[in-house]
Design a protein that fits this description.
The protein is 75% helix and 0% strand. The mean pLDDT is 84. It contains 4 helices and no strands.
């Protein structure tokens, strides 16, 4: 059967925040068509599972810690 794009994306988000682009690429590799991917990603954004601002903030924190450790 066809895989549920929201379920696939939610599973990927269980481990860590991901960017919308990262999730879109994962869904494309899973064979999900563009319209279905877009609908799924919009749904995930609406319910708060997908948040590029939160992802960017978390990434900036990691980079800041790594930069401090390198000093």
């Amino acid at each position: 059967g066809e895989q549920d794009p929201i379920e696939l994306a939610a599973r990927a988000l269980q481990h860590r925040d991901r960017s919308r682009r990262d999730l879109e690429e994962r869904l494309a590799r899973a064979g999900i068509d563009a319209d279905t991917r877009n609908d799924a990603l919009e749904t995930l954004e609406r319910v708060g599972y997908l948040d590029d601002e939160r992802f960017a903030g978390a990434r900036a924190d990691v980079i800041g810690v790594a930069a401090q450790a390198a000093v």
